[in-house]
Design a protein that fits this description.
- The longest helix is centred in the C-terminal third of the chain and has 13 residues, at 399-411.
- The strands form two sheets. Strands 3, 4, 5, 6, 7, 8, 9, 10 and 11 form a nine-stranded mixed beta sheet that branches. Strands 1-2 form a two-stranded antiparallel ribbon.
- The chain has 477 residues and is mainly beta.
- It has a domain at 297-474.
- Mean pLDDT is 81; it is low at 296-300, 379-383 and 450-477.
- It has helices at residues 399-411, 434-446; strands at 188-191, 194-197, 295-297, 300-311, 314-333, 342-362, 387-394, 396-397, 415-418, 422-428, 452-453.
Length: 477
């Protein structure tokens, strides 16, 4: 070839065309292929080495996306995930590894979603049983984790599945059976307490089973009976107990010893109180039963309480115990009212007790120590100023009863000086009055009373006091 021919040894000029006007790929200057007579060669590529979709030999456009909208990195241009709008990845496999065209786990060439041959498990690129990233044919690495770092059971390294639920069905963020959108691990949510599936919009999923695995006929998908593995039926009623609690007291829905409202199989909450606010003994948090009767201790439970006033400043309270209680008793008697109260003490079992309460205005006091609650910042008789003195006499010495009285009087700002049968109590007030004294007596007796009578002049004991050795005329007024 002459030095002035300006063609290379293969016969192509400086622009890359031969004498007939075709380049090395067989395209002329206007892009027509010499063999196919079209813009594309035998491999379907044009003069720019792009196919009819504008993709290169690897299937990607100049922007890095294939004709299905997937980028080289695997993300889809519209969904922003590794799946397109129809749920298929760049290799045309769905989330379950089923190919869009073949409808199997392998494509037309016999490779699965990760590029492994269906016959020998060899990867199409590495030629080994693992791909470029070290994952095998089933999609797991040597640690047994998949590309999303989930194990073969579908849980991550801290125990949550792809939906964020642990093995017990509790969501990692909401810490309930439901995710942020209100659906459980099986895709069921609730509207006004009625379950529905997020896809079907009914109480049954795509396979015709409800959230507990029961079909419309009430037969469970696993057991094939009317009861599931835990012996609950379609209405979540247990086969043995007939309730939503199993034989161990665990609730069907909450998975704890308590139902959605916080009550156990016996109907009591964590504090031991039922829906009406009473414990198994029938008393509320304040120690009263439904009839207003008070409870002090297990051995000091009163079935009936009666209060009577023998003056504006004096009252007697009768208490009937549920069970005979051993205590010290005192007989009150007097030959002469002016000489005060005389008594004789003895120990016995009794079903009843009587408290006599008297209040009066007082001036300053001295030489006494009072029993009172912890410092509340309020005056409680500890500086012995003017105010009100309360004398509480007990017919029988019940320690639990006295403690209750002392505690309750402390709440009313009375300090107490105690002995076996008597409490001497004081409440400070700068300007004591008779009206205030009457009011305080009513408040104190109100701590006990479920029945009140005002027979101030003709004082008559209620029936429950008939056999108690304590007569109104024997009381110093």
């Amino acid at each position: 070839m002459g030095i002035f021919s300006r063609r290379d040894e293969d016969g192509y000029d400086i622009h890359g065309y031969d004498k007939k006007g075709y380049n090395r790929a067989g395209f002329d200057k206007i892009g027509i292929h010499k063999v196919t007579g079209t813009r594309f060669d035998e491999n379907g590529l044009d003069k720019s080495r792009l196919d009819k979709y504008g993709c290169d030999l690897e299937g990607f456009t100049l922007s890095g996306h294939d004709r299905f909208g997937f980028h080289r990195s695997g993300g889809h241009v519209k969904t922003g995930t590794r799946f397109d709008e129809d749920g298929f990845d760049k290799n045309r496999f769905d989330e379950d590894g089923v190919h869009r065209i073949t409808g199997t786990k392998f494509d037309q060439d016999g490779f699965n979603r990760y590029g492994f041959d269906m016959d020998d498990g060899v990867h199409r690129i590495t030629g080994t049983n693992v791909d470029e990233d070290g994952f095998n044919m089933d999609g797991f690495d040597e640690m047994g984790l998949d590309r999303d770092r989930f194990n073969m059971d579908g849980f991550d390294q801290i125990g949550f599945d792809r939906g964020g639920f642990d093995n017990g069905g509790i969501h990692r963020i909401t810490v309930t059976r439901f995710d942020e959108d209100g659906f459980d691990r099986n895709g069921f949510g609730e509207t006004y307490g009625i379950p529905f599936h997020r896809i079907t919009g009914t109480r049954f999923d795509e396979d015709g089973f409800d959230r507990n695995g029961f079909g419309e006929d009430g037969v469970h998908r696993i057991t094939g009976t009317k009861f599931d593995q835990d012996r609950f039926d379609i209405n979540e009623i247990h086969e043995i107990t007939g309730t939503k609690f199993d034989e161990y007291g665990v609730h069907r829905i909450t998975g704890t010893k308590f139902d959605e409202s916080g009550f156990n199989k016996d109907g009591f909450d964590r504090g031991g109180f039922d829906r009406g606010g009473f414990n198994e003994k029938g008393f509320n948090k304040d120690g009263f039963d439904a009839d207003g009767c008070v409870q002090f201790e297990l051995t000091s439970v009163f079935s009936k309480i009666a209060t009577s006033f023998d003056s504006d400043f004096s009252a007697v309270i009768g208490l009937a115990y549920n069970e005979p209680t051993k205590m010290k008793s005192k007989l009150f008697f007097s030959h002469d009212k002016k000489m005060g109260i005389y008594s004789k003490e003895f120990e016995s079992f009794s079903n009843k007790n009587v408290i006599h309460i008297r209040i009066e205005k007082t001036g300053k006091q001295s030489n006494a120590n009072w029993i009172k609650p912890k410092d509340t910042g309020k005056k409680q008789g500890d500086n012995f100023e003017s105010g009100y003195t309360l004398i509480v006499n007990f017919n029988k010495n019940d320690t639990a009863l006295k403690k209750f009285v002392i505690d309750k009087l402390g709440e009313l700002e009375f300090g107490s000086l105690t002995s076996g049968y008597t409490l001497h109590c004081h409440k400070d007030e700068d300007y004591p009055t008779d009206e205030r004294a009457k009011e305080l007596l009513q408040t104190v007796t109100g701590l006990f009373s479920s029945e009140n009578t005002n027979n101030k002049k003709n004082f008559i004991f209620p029936d429950i006091l008939n056999d108690v050795y304590f007569q109104p005329d024997d009381v110093e007024s």
